[in-house]
Fold this protein.
Amino acid sequence: MAFDNSISAQDDGVAVLNTGPGSVNLNIVKSLSGLPSVLNPLIIKIVEVYRPQFNSAMQAPKYPETEVKITFNRVKIYAEDLREQSGYMALIESLIDCVDDESPLSKETFLWAINQKYKDVKKKIFLEGNIDPLDSEAAKEAICQNSDKIISLVSLDILSGAHVSSTSPVELVKAAKELIVCYGFINCKILEEPV
């Protein structure tokens, strides 16, 4: 069997050649050493983009148990990812606290920005399903039926307007994005707060 030697990784990245039988699984979250260097500029960029629109009169974030929120919103596909990533919230909390120390209200702005992405996706889901947002039962059912889709769409859109240096490995940017989405989920800024 001949191997293709033209595959190479650049800028501390990871290259995978997966043309034969079997599959390759990479768990980038386990290599956390590079995440702070990616997360910190992302948090700062998101805060910079949304600071002019943020209203500091928001209520304080709540922290329901991750499992309770997963069950309440009927998350299926992303449930295990959220459980695993919730163990890394101390990392993102410490980074956000550092940014907030340098620039007050950054934490609140960051959470507000995440919530705005969720609200945009929720509106699209309601439009697609012709759901009246004032019909609380139909709205909750639409959110629960589409919870995994909502997480996926928020994840795709979360970094719009916040660009990271091109030297950051794609895998670390993806892991950072997943941690940001999990942070938004845990802080009740993505999907609904259990009642």
In short: The helical segments are 35-50, 66-72, 79-85, 89-102, 106-129, 136-145, 147-157, 170-186. Residues 25-29 have pLDDT under 50 and may be disordered. Residues 86 and 182 are 7 Å apart (CA to CA). DSSP finds eight helices and no strands in the chain.
